[in-house]
Amino acid sequence: MTETGTTNQPLLADPRIQRAIELVWREAALLDAKDYPTWEQLYTDEAIYVIPIDPETDDFRGSLNMVYDDQRLRHLRVERLVQGYSPSAVAAARTVRIVSRFTVEALSDTEVTLRSAQIVNAYKRHEFLTLGAELTHRIVLGDDGDKIALKVIRLNDSEDAVSASGYLL
Q1: Any residues with CB less than 8 A from the CB of 96 and at least 6 apart, and which?
Q2: First and final CA of the chain: distance in angstroms?
Q3: Is 24 exposed, middle or buried, given 0-12, 13-18 or 19+ CB atoms closer than 10 A?
Q4: CA-to-CA distance for 36 and 77, rounded, in angstroms?
Q5: Which stretches are annotated as coiled coil (predicted)?
């Protein structure tokens, strides 16, 4: 059953939502630390990590995406980043990201879907780049740990040309 915000208790006070937000913040910290192998373990085996080009689409399989990674493709992406042999891994950008403005899209005893805003400040080769994005995380709550089942990164400039970033969003 999906709950809505009709109770007297503020949704953000719900411990399920707090757990989901903490997981999103942990993910951001791992990405800034470039701890990609640990980041990879935050995802369920069936999870999808997607950066769509069309800012309005929910049909990720039928649309053109900058990134559409299942478990195998996420693993290959992590391997490229940690081995240091790809152009994106050489002199990788240093990043600081802020994830905030959480809203709850869906809530049940086993899942939380959050929307949030992300600002990524990246520094590479004496240049700063700032990216803004709307995020959607579907978090599966479990007794053995919470995991990300879906992450959608809707970049503000998704329809413009994108240069190689050298980091994960």
Answers
A1: 32, 120, 121
A2: 31
A3: buried
A4: 9
A5: none
**What are the tens digits of pLDDT across the range 39-56?**
999 999 999 999 999 989
DSSP 97-110: EEEEEEEEEEE-SS
Is 60 exceeded by the pLDDT of residue 31? Answer: yes
Show the tokens assigned to 8. Answer: 């007297």
**Residue 72 phi, psi (nearest 5):** -65, -45
**pTM for this one?**
0.88
Looking at residues 6-34, what average pLDDT do you find?
Answer: 88
